[in-house]
Every structure is written in C-alpha cells, then in structure tokens.
Design goal:
The structure holds two protein chains of two kinds.
Chain A (H helix, E strand, L loop, with lengths): L6 H5 L4 E5 L9 H8 L10 E4 L8 E4 L8 H5 L26 H5 L6 E3 L4 E3 L5 H4 L6 H5 L5 E5 H7 L3 E8 L2 E11 L6 E3 L11
Parallel strand pairs in A: 1-8, 7-9
Antiparallel strand pairs in A: 1-6, 2-3, 4-5, 7-8
Chain B lengths: L11 H5 L4 H5 L3 H28 L8 E5 L7 E6 L6 E6 L6 E4 L10 E3 L4 E4 L4 E4 L5 E3 L8 E7 L2 E8 L5
Antiparallel strand pairs in B: 1-10, 2-3, 3-4, 4-9, 5-6, 6-7, 7-8, 9-10
The chains are: A alpha/beta, B alpha+beta.
C-alpha cells in the first residue's frame, strides 16, 4: 500500500474477501504450518484441517474463523474477552480477560475456537489481523497451493470459479451471516447444516 | 466508523460491555459530562469531610510515664525508653549537666533508629546520613522531611517524667 489508505478502504479490508472452498482442499497442511509461523502466536496454528469422514474418504476441509456478523462466541463470553472490530473481524480472546471457561468453544456453530489449556486461554483465527488490517493477505491464503483458501477481490473469484460464494448458513432455524464466504454449488443460495444429519446413527 | 452516535435505546450496560469494540470504547458527551460532574462532587464531598474532621478532631492525650532518675544518665550519655506505647522507641539525651532532651527514635525519613553522636553533638541516622539537631530535633542535613517528634519532659525531684509529644511540621 503505497498511498495513505482511507478509512473506507480499511473497513472494506481493501476490497479483498476471504473465500473457503472445501472441495479444493488437498489436505497438505501448508496453511497450518504457515499459520504457526506468525509471530503473534508462533508455534500455535489457529487454523485446523480436519478429515470429513476418515474411513470412507480422504477429503479434508480447512477451518478458519467465519467471522459472524453476530458472533455467538462473543455473546456467550462471560468475561467480555472476545471483541469484534469495526471491519467485521472477530478477534481472538484478550489474554487479560479470558478465563478459559470454554463457553465459546461449545457455542460456536462452526467449531472454531480452541481452548489452549496450557495457556489457559482460548485462541482462534483472527484473519491475520496484523496483516489484513494493513492490506496484506492472511498467511494461510498466501500459501494454499489449490486456493481452497483464497483472499481475493470479489470480481476475481466470480470470474475464475464455477461455485458461488455464499455467507449465509442455516443451523436448523438459526441463520448465521458471516464475513468469510464459503464456495457452494451455483444452484444453492445458502448452506443448510442440520446437526442431526451428521450424527453417527443408523438411519432407518 | 461513526464519530457521533445517537443515544441508543438499549440499556447502558449493553453498550458498556458491547461485543463491538467501537461501541465499547465510545463515550458520549453526556456521559463524559456526567462523569466530570460526579467526580467533582465526590472530590468536593471528600474535602468537606476532611475539613469537618480537622475541625472536630481532639488533640491526643498522652499518658504520664516515669522514665528514669536524672542521675541514671551520665553527661553525654543516653537512655532508651518507650513512649507513649510499647511500640514507640524513644531516646533521652543528656548533652550537658543541666539539659535533658528526648525524641522519638524513629527517623522521619524511613523509620531507622537514630542514635546520639556525642563527638559531633548531634543525632544521626545511619541509614541515609540524616542528621538532627540535639537542641530541637530539627533536620541538619540529609533526606528526612520533618524534625524528630519531641517528647516533653518534666523533672519531679530526681525523677524524669514524659508528659507529652510535640510534632513540628515540615520546616
């Protein structure tokens, strides 16, 4: 960023958006290692690459914080430790305030916050706030070889991808709108996640 | 980023402990004025209370206490005693034949025990080289901010009696 950036630019994250496409994830763990390189939390990755169904498929999916418009984690925090900034980024817990109660871990619909027991603090993805707030891309998106994690302008993703970006999720009746976009099939408008569908039970 | 926000209808604590950092840090002009007025009121009330206390304060009553006989202390010698309570160490000095003076032994700087130096005829504190006058306990040199509290002595026949303490303010 050569010229001085205006407030609008900063609040719009310089025109860049975060897009997650689980179907492109190859499970290489590059994002995990890149995340752990960051000097603000060196050695502790705040991104998680999980196997979807280990016995039947090798498919993996990267989990970054979706940065909800109405963050459940922050709302359930009894210590007022999780804050959302003006640009819509839900920050990781504040060390002096976090009491390691794990309320946010249980409450997040996406399962993002993780309790770091040895630090007695919750730590989660803050979209590399030290980088994105000054116009750089997040560590994970810079290293992702298949661009399952992409931090690009909206026009670019619409031009290059078949899938459609969506930031609306339904958890049963709860509607969650997020800052981070998920790439979904073009015929769908929102992603509906019914927890019952993912329970390991024999269906009659 | 809005610089001026209208007063919201929500309860105040929801703004004070908002999950949005901007709302949490925002202070309206009315809130700031309330803060100023209440703090000033608090300060004023505190000052009135201090004033009232100083007006109605009784001067402390000191007991009478026998220290020693005048002949117990040689010229240029000292006699240690405790007055007015067991926790207050004091020192009685006889710089010449007819003079007896007594001071609190606590240095007014950091409460080290002071001692009498007969060669220089002054009271010395060994910790930071604070020196006091034997005549009236005033500071001769060093860090002590106030003179030593003086124990008022009375001579009844051969007996030396402590009857009170005079504390001088900063000189």
């Amino acid at each position: 960023m050569g010229e001085r950036s205006s407030i609008e630019q900063i609040l719009n994250m310089f025109g860049y958006e975060f897009y997650v496409d689980p179907s492109r994830c190859i499970g290489c763990q590059s994002c995990v290692n890149a995340c752990a390189e960051c000097e603000t939390h060196r050695g502790t990755p705040m991104i998680h690459v999980d196997f979807l169904d280990r016995t039947n498929t090798i498919a993996t999916v990267p989990f970054v914080c979706m940065h909800c418009e109405d963050p459940t984690c922050a709302k359930v925090c009894p210590a007022d430790a999780i804050k959302k900034t003006e640009d819509g980024v839900v920050q990781s817990s504040l060390k002096p305030r976090c009491i390691a109660c794990s309320n946010c871990v249980l409450a997040c619909p996406f399962g993002i916050p993780k309790m770091m027991t040895e630090l007695e603090q919750m730590m989660k993805c803050d979209m590399c706030y030290d980088r994105t707030s000054e116009g750089k891309r997040p560590m994970c998106a810079t290293v992702c070889p298949s661009q399952a994690l992409a931090y690009v302008p909206r026009e670019q993703i619409e031009r290059l991808r078949r899938e459609k970006p969506s930031n609306v999720f339904f958890f049963g009746k709860q509607k969650v709108t997020t800052k981070v976009f998920m790439m979904i099939p073009p015929e769908r408008d929102a992603l509906s996640v019914d927890v019952v569908d993912y329970m390991w039970e024999e269906k009659a | 980023m809005k610089l001026f926000q209208p007063e919201s209808k929500r309860p105040l604590w929801k703004d004070e402990f908002s999950i949005n950092r901007a709302d949490e840090q925002y202070v309206s002009r009315r809130q700031f004025t309330k803060f100023l007025v209440l703090t000033s009121l608090g300060m004023f009330a505190g000052n009135v209370w201090i004033l009232a206390r100083s007006l109605f304060r009784k001067s402390p009553v000191y007991p009478e206490q026998n220290i020693c006989r005048a002949t117990d202390v040689p010229v240029g010698g000292v006699w240690l005693f405790r007055y007015p309570t067991e926790k207050d160490a004091c020192i009685l000095i006889r710089p010449d034949d007819q003079t007896y003076v007594a001071y609190s032994q606590k240095c007014t700087h950091l409460s080290c025990a002071v001692y009498y130096a007969p060669a220089k005829n002054r009271i010395e504190c060994p910790c930071h080289e604070g020196y006091f006058s034997v005549k009236d306990g005033s500071v001769l040199q060093g860090p002590p901010p106030r003179p030593l509290p003086r124990v008022v002595l009375e001579r009844r026949g051969d007996q030396l009696v402590a009857v009170g303490i005079t504390i001088k303010e900063e000189t």
